[in-house]
TrEMBL record:
SMART domains: Cation_ATPase_N
Cation-transporting P-type ATPase N-terminal domain span: 227-303
Membrane-spanning parts: 286-304, 316-334, 468-489, 509-539, 990-1010, 1030-1047, 1068-1087, 1099-1118
Subcellular location: Membrane
Organism of provenance: Lactuca saligna
Reaction(s) this enzyme catalyzes, per UniProt: Ca(2+)(in) + ATP + H2O = Ca(2+)(out) + ADP + phosphate + H(+)
Enzyme type, top EC level: translocase
GO cellular component, one term: plasma membrane
UniProt entry tagged with the keyword Ubl conjugation: no
The protein's name: Calcium-transporting ATPase
PANTHER family: CALCIUM-TRANSPORTING ATPASE, CATION TRANSPORTING ATPASE
Keyword Nucleotide-binding listed: yes
């Protein structure tokens, strides 16, 4: 077997370019065999091997491969110098070719494939710039591990977030290099290995003439030689037992057979984490671990001094509290995990147009099988590996797979389409050749761990708050412990027993330490980020029911601060159910609600030819035998118009040969096709924005069907008709044609001028019901709604007025005019712009950028096309349309509006505000508990030498205010009152003055009451005897808990006095309050041994509840303070 010189040269040069770019050469040269770390990416190892193939023997000796090569082939002790860089530049001699060929055979012999060989010899080589610690589990580095459910204890480590971001960028680069080198390696092997493919018997018996691995290698390796060997694309289709026109058979047994031999189009999913994993994570909390140690020591010392079971009570009480906290936390996290997994599945639901059994239909990408004929258009994601069948101007963005920004043109000469890439331009039919884990994308996905959202901005902010408060709590905890120990030592000195320490003293010291630790537990508001996650998860689930799919958690909270919405017109403000209701053909305006029969024959022929050939839609017969129109709403409306005129789609399409197609482009605002007619004429048809097409026309067809020059009077007449149609809120399109020279090639661009105007159509797209009310709701909420559309300005203004967007003091402007304005003019104009017509994607991006950066607005933008991606990225919240939106737009968006309805956008804004307000309510509630618990225990310890709230009691309070409080307050549904407030905006403070007023007012009340009970409680209740301290402390604990319970109800409204409005509609809130009350009764009355409580009398219970209830009228008074201040 001889190695081809050009294959070797190409391979080596390619590899060298790639590896130099990746920066891995220096790393390999520095690594000794004995200190390499496990964890490299499988495909990345091809890079290291490729370096070996392209570089000097120094590195070969370094890695230790040379000895193995010599030993296996019994070669003399000479080096492999022929592999050096210098020799590559020379002609490779026959002897060296043979030796290199032997080397490749040896590689395949040792590993039976390059991958296994590299695993064996280079599995321990670590990539450059990766630490030993980060390489312990490679899969966790390929994505941020999704765990938004966990309790974020103490600190938000921003350094780790930055490190994770850097790691993600590094991994993207590694993926890029891996793909490029994998391709190069495949090409290299193809150059040195003979084709020895044999068809497996089981595949042959199933009716196929090619196996999955063989067809996969053709597409993945871009192997044109092998493709030609199998008869080209048509040959592959034949061997896969499919038709390039009708697709595969829908016979059930046939489909099952395809699945068995070629697989299904699904990636291997990461197994869902079990409940016990969340239990384990909850147990990792450092404070709980410290308390667990305290409980263990307490058990040992207690049992040793007091015996069993009395001596075990304190320790078991702490253990029970820890287990309860862990169980509730794990349950909450596990439920959220399931919820996020369901939402993740919704994100991945993508439908695609497929032809099966001769009928075109929509299928989920997961239902695709090898042999399917898939129809791709601009913005679609390629759902599997495949081969190009037919199409025009197909440009593929492979950046998601290779990292290369330059689009790849797909043609019959380069027919390879890879899963995960996106159609940037054009449209085509594709033959599916590889699905699921056999695709190149599938293989890369197999190496990635479960992905997830980073912490949201609010979580980061609250984690910072938690960190500061945690440090304050730690400071007070240390002082509290010091004071308590000092009191104990002073007491023993006074008693002259300071040299005698008993087990009771040890238990007391342990209790002091547990109290100090528990103060930290209570002081640290770790429930803040938990509340954010709970609220977001709750909102995301409810928004799914309201037809909004949230892709990124942060979008929920950001939408609550939105001050501006830039909305498309078509399909968002309107129904997107279009019909042609008027047309101007041969200078005559036709009302299509009546019968049309006065169009000259030659003009009608040109019109029908233009309608049926210059279109991205199709007229087909579905499985029920009915005629069905496929395509965008605009295309559907025009095709319906053509059918109404008596046209035949099939005969028109078959009556000419398509030479070139230019799909609709939102920048050029037109589409065109070049046809070769049977009589030898080459004709171009063009369709698009009426003003733009009309400006490209030099002739027109008059009332007699004759082609005449387009004079100024005729132009003004046609422009008047366009304005008349637009004034009736109709979308206008102009159709034109031009005959070309017969020598036009498929590469020749469609002319930009010289056309003959065939006619103008007016398309009705009714405004959606409820849009006007939704726009008014936004205005009342302080949100400015702007319409950004590609339509005629007159049409846009008419629709905007109908929707209530365009007001008397608002401005409507066209994109070209907007582009010409200076920065000073834009500064004056932008706040007043309410309608932008004839806008390009760049215009939309510029508008959004200025609104965000110059005016500081929080901007939400809607988009449906591929070219909307930049604006969706630029916006604070990108909203993609679920029905009309392309996959590119959806991937760029934060929220997908599943029903394409503007009213749903307003619902998203309402839910966003609800999330923000709910978290504010919870913060207000929790900080009140933090302040009171901290001050009460600290002051009591300093003044009396004891803490009224024990470790077990504080753990119970901690759970009330953390998990249960978050569940109760973070799941409040939105109400209409939310949309009567002004938005917070970009610079608004999260903890408002109103919140501080409520926090401080309640804290002062609670602290005063508890301190009065501490100092006067015994005399007030007539408590005497040995258990008086225990009863008083139980009373303080009970009153403190009921203060929190009623304050939780107060926190439902931060400004409204009526806090019970709608309370019975929130089942979660009622359940949490009820459960807290019941558990409090059980703890006080029945768990005294473990919780250090004593049963209370009816009067004491009434007094405890009454103290808690008094916080409600106090809250009412506090809420009136701002109004009193304003009045004064």
């Amino acid at each position: 077997m001889f190695v081809r010189n050009n294959a070797i040269d190409t391979m080596r040069e390619h590899i060298k370019d790639v590896v130099k770019e990746s920066g891995l050469i220096e790393n390999i040269l520095q690594q000794k065999k004995n200190d390499i770390v496990v964890g490299s990416f499988g495909s990345i190892r091809m890079i290291e091997k490729a370096i070996f193939l392209g570089y000097s023997n120094d590195m070969v000796n370094e890695i230790g491969l040379l000895e193995g090569y010599r030993r296996d082939w019994n070669l003399p002790g000479k080096n492999l110098g022929f592999l050096s860089t210098s020799c590559v530049k020379k002609k490779v001699k026959l002897k060296e070719e043979r030796l290199t060929g032997r080397l490749i055979v040896w590689i395949l012999k040792k590993g039976k494939a390059m991958e296994s060989y590299l695993n064996e010899n280079f599995g321990r080589v670590k990539p450059k710039h990766s630490s030993d610690e980060s390489l312990r589990d490679w899969r966790t580095l390929c994505g941020v591990v999704k765990n938004p459910k966990r309790r974020f204890r103490f600190t938000a480590n921003l350094a780790k977030r930055n490190e994770a971001a850097v790691m993600r960028r590094t991994n993207q680069e590694k993926l890029k290099v891996a793909v490029l080198v994998s391709k190069a390696a495949v090409h290299f092997l193809q150059g040195v290995q003979p084709s020895d493919y044999t068809l497996p018997e089981e595949v042959k018996s199933a009716g196929f003439e090619i196996c999955a691995d063989e067809v996969a290698s053709i597409v993945e390796g871009h192997d044109s030689k092998k493709l030609k060997h199998h008869g080209g694309v048509d040959g592959i289709a034949k061997k896969l037992n499919t038709s390039t026109t009708s697709g595969i058979s829908t016979d059930k047994q046939t489909l099952i057979s395809r699945q068995e031999h070629f697989g299904i189009n699904k990636f291997t999913e990461t197994p869902h984490r079990s409940f016990w994993v969340f239990v384990w994570e909850a147990l990792q909390d450092m404070t709980l671990m410290v308390l667990g140690v305290c409980a263990f020591v307490s058990l040992i010392v207690g049992i040793a001094t007091e015996g069993w079971p009395r001596g075990a009570h304190d320790g078991l009480g702490i253990v029970a509290s820890i287990l309860l906290v862990v169980f509730v936390t794990a349950t909450s996290d596990y439920r959220q995990s399931l919820q996020f997994k369901d939402l993740d599945k919704e994100k991945k639901k993508i439908s695609i147009q497929v032809t099966r059994n001769g009928y075109r239909q929509k299928l989920s990408i997961y239902e695709l099988l090898v042999g399917d004929i898939v129809h791709l258009a601009i913005g679609d994601q390629v759902p599997a590996d495949g081969l190009f069948l037919s199409g025009f101007s197909v440009s593929i963005d492979e950046s998601s797979l290779t990292g290369e920004s330059e689009p790849i043109m797909v043609t019959t000469e380069n027919p390879y389409l890879l899963s995960g890439t996106k159609v940037q331009d054009g449209s085509c039919k594709m033959l599916v050749t590889t699905v699921g884990m056999r695709t190149q994308w599938g293989k890369l996905m197999a190496t990635l761990s479960e992905g997830g959202d980073d912490e949201t901005p609010l979580q980061v902010k609250l984690n910072g708050v938690a960190t500061i408060i945690g440090k304050i709590g730690l400071f007070f905890a240390i002082i509290t412990f010091t004071v308590l120990v000092q009191k104990l030592i002073t007491h023993k000195i006074n008693q002259k027993t300071h040299w005698k320490w008993s087990g009771d003293d040890a238990l007391e010291l342990l209790e002091y330490f547990a109290i100090a630790v528990t103060i930290v537990v209570v002081a640290v508001p770790e429930g803040l980020p938990l509340a954010v996650t709970l609220s977001l998860a709750f909102a995301m689930k409810k928004m799914m029911n309201d037809k909004a799919l949230v892709r990124h958690l942060a979008a929920c909270e950001t939408m609550g601060s939105a001050t501006s919405i830039c909305s498309d017109k078509t399909g968002t403000l309107t129904t997107n159910h279009m019909t042609v209701v008027k047309a101007c053909i041969c200078t005559k305006v036709l009302d299509l609600t009546k019968k049309v029969n006065d169009i000259p024959d030659n003009a009608l022929k040109l019109l029908l030819q233009s309608i049926f050939t210059n279109t991205g839609g199709e007229v087909v017969i579905n499985q029920r035998g009915n005629r069905e129109i496929l395509g965008t709403p605009t295309e559907t409306a025009i095709l319906e118009f053509g059918l109404l005129l008596g046209g035949d789609f099939k005969s028109e399409r078959e009556g000419s040969k398509v030479v070139r197609v230019e799909p609709f482009n939102s920048t050029k605002k037109r589409m065109g096709v070049v046809l070769k007619l049977p009589e030898g004429i080459v004709r171009a048809h063009c369709k698009g924005a009426s003003e733009i097409i009309l400006a490209a026309c030099e002739n027109m067809i008059n009332g007699n069907g004759e082609v005449v020059p387009l004079d100024e009077e005729s132009v003004n007449n046609l422009k008047g008709i366009i304005d008349k149609f637009a004034g009736e809120a109709l979308r206008t399109l102009c159709l034109a044609y031009v005959d070309l020279n017969s020598d036009v090639s498929p590469e020749t661009a469609i002319p930009a001028s010289g056309y003959t105007c065939i006619g103008i159509v007016g398309i009705k797209d009714p405004v959606r019901p409820g849009v006007k009310e939704s726009v008014a709701l936004c205005r009342a909420a302080g949100i400015t709604v702007r319409m950004v559309t590609g339509d005629n300005i007159t049409t846009a203004k008419a629709i905007a007025k109908e929707c209530g967007i365009l007001t008397d003091d608002g401005i409507a402007i066209e994109g070209p005019d907007f582009r010409e304005k200076s920065l000073d003019e834009l500064y004056y104009l932008i706040p007043k712009i309410q309608v932008m017509a004839r806008s390009s994607p760049l215009d939309k991006h510029t508008l959004v950028r200025h609104l965000r950066t110059t005016f500081g607005e929080v901007v939400a933008v809607t988009g449906d096309g591929t070219n909307d991606a930049p604006a969706l990225h630029e916006a604070d919240i990108g909203l993609a349309m679920g029905i009309a939106g392309t996959e590119v737009a959806k991937e760029s968006a934060d929220v997908i509006i599943l029903d394409d309805n503007f009213s749903t956008i307003v619902t998203v804004a309402k839910w966003g505000r609800s999330v923000y307000i709910n978290i504010q309510k919870f913060v207000q509630f929790q900080l009140t508990v933090n302040v009171v618990a901290l001050v009460v225990n600290f002051t009591s310890a300093c003044l009396t030498g004891s803490a009224p709230l024990t470790a077990v009691q504080l753990l119970w309070v901690n759970m009330i205010m953390d998990t249960l409080g978050a569940l109760a307050l973070a799941t409040e549904p939105p109400n209409d009152e939310l949309m009567k407030r002004q938005p917070v905006g970009r610079t608004g403070s999260f903890i408002s003055i109103v919140m501080w007023r409520n926090i401080l007012g309640q804290s002062i009340y609670q602290f005063t009451v508890i301190w009065l009970l501490q100092s006067k409680g015994k005399s007030f209740f007539g408590l005497h005897g040995d258990d008086s301290d225990l009863i008083l402390n139980t009373l303080i604990f009970n009153a403190f808990v009921f203060c929190q319970l009623f304050n939780e109800i107060n926190s439902r409204e931060m400004e409204k006095e009526d806090v019970t409005d709608g309370i019975w509609d929130n089942n979660v809130f009622v359940s949490v309050i009820s459960a807290t009350f019941i558990f409090q009764v059980i703890i006080v009355e029945y768990l005294g041994t473990f919780a250090n409580t004593s049963p209370l009398t009816i009067i004491q219970w009434f007094f405890s509840i009454f103290i808690g209830f008094l916080s409600m009228p106090i809250a009412v008074y506090l809420k009136r303070i701002p109004y009193l201040l304003k009045t004064n």
